[in-house]
Structure formats: C-alpha cells, structure tokens
Amino acid sequence: MPGGPPPSPPPSLRLSKQTREQVATLKRRTGIRHMNVLCRWALCRSLLESAPPPAPATDTATEIEWAVFAGASGLLWWSLLLERSASSGDSLSASEADALLRGHVARGMSYLVGDPTIKDVSSLGRLALTSASDR
Predict the structure, then answer these.
(1) What is the extent of the structural domain holding 37?
(2) pTM for this predicted structure
C-alpha cells in the first residue's frame, strides 16, 4: 500500500450491542455456537458489496480477541480486508483499518440476520455458492 507498510490487525474485534444481539439471533437460527465463526461469515458477506460499510457504532458490548476471531487464518482475513480497501484506492491507518473491520462485520451481520433464507448452517453454504455463481 502506498504511504508505508499496511497496519497490523487490531488486538480485538469490538462488537456493538446491536451486532452482539444479531450474533445471538444467528446462533439460534443456525446452530453455530461460536460468534467468531459467524463474524467471519459476516465479514465475507460484507466484502461482497462494492460500497464501503457505514461507520461502525461506537459502543462496545463485547470483544473477540483477534486470534480467536481469525483463528489460524489471521493473515488471510486481514489481507482480504486490506486488499478490498486497496482496491478502492484507500491507504489506511491502524485506527481506520480497525473501524473498517468493525464496519464490515456489523454490515455483514445485519445482512445475514435480515436474510430470510438463512435458517441453518447449510443455508450459509448455499449463500456462499450462490454469491460465487453470481460473480
């Protein structure tokens, strides 16, 4: 990225109260027990959109450590976010990258909760396959 090295991932992913409640709804609907898994789905869902996400809410209801959110694929998740930002021509500071991550997860979670076809784990797989075939 122009302007120096890219920022490092934040120590944790902060979720607003609304996003935390949406995670709880999706846990019930899908049977997925771990919020980090749902947050990864939300990130991917949001990254499909060409427009940047809205600014994230400033409240913090819960935090997920980066290592827990990202698991063994931390570099992959962070690279996806930074690449998406670079494709828009943006160079990010660490705080901007953190806000972008929170914004993508919050927007993606809203999309997933609002999608009436998301009823179980297999519906997430169908969503991924449908999204891939649309491209």
Answers:
(1) 12-134
(2) 0.90
